[in-house]
Design brief:
Helix content: over 70%
Distance between the termini: 13 Å
Order of helices and strands: HHEEHH
Low-confidence stretches: none
Structural class: alpha+beta
Strand order of the largest sheet: 1-2
Number of strands: 2
Number of helices: 4
Oligomer: single chain
């Protein structure tokens, strides 16, 4: 079941939504962290043959965001709540997808049992029709009894056709919900 669940596109999208919320939280947290930068610059000049000059410069910057600290803590709390919501949605929807797979499996089994039952009914109706046909030929039953047996045979053939079609639909549904 878990293998089938992991093949579902919906499951992958749910995983990606959780990852996206986690990344959004990291981005928001990064906006409130201090930043530092350093740089080095150099230059060599020679105007004439007489004098050479080399100039160098080192610089650095530090940025500490203090204006957004108060609001930042609330934004980080909001981000963590959104992250929890995404995780809860992931769990809930994963369970729903599993239920959908289990239901499709159960429906498939029921359709197969119905198909087998319809085959058995058809075989019994064929046997009943043969017996009634022989009885009619021997003059033991009326034509209406023979026609009734023939109608029953036709009905069971129709039911078998419906059961086959339903079974194939359930197979297709099961393959779809398992990601195949």
């Amino acid at each position: 079941k878990n293998e089938a669940l992991k093949k579902r596109v919906e499951y992958s999208l749910l995983e990606k939504s959780v990852e996206a919320e986690e990344l959004q939280t990291k981005i928001k947290r990064g906006e409130y962290l201090p930043q530092a930068g350093i740089g080095v610059s150099g230059m060599y000049m020679k105007f004439d043959e007489s004098k050479e000059r080399t100039l160098g410069m080192v610089y650095g910057t530090v940025s500490v965001p203090i204006s957004g600290w108060w609001g930042g803590s609330y934004e980080l709390q909001e981000r963590s709540i959104k992250e929890e919501i995404a995780e809860n949605n992931f769990k809930n929807n994963s369970e729903l997808l599993l239920l959908q797979i289990e239901k499709a499996w159960q429906d498939l089994n029921d359709a197969y049992k119905q198909y087998l039952l319809s085959e058995e009914s058809k075989a019994q109706a064929e046997e009943n029709f043969k017996v009634n046909e022989d009885s009619y030929k021997n003059g033991l039953i009326t034509v209406s009894d023979l026609l009734e047996a023939q109608a029953l045979l036709q009905q069971t053939q129709d039911q078998l056709t419906e059961a086959k079609a339903n079974y194939l639909v359930k197979v297709t549904t099961y393959l779809k919900v398992t990601g195949r």
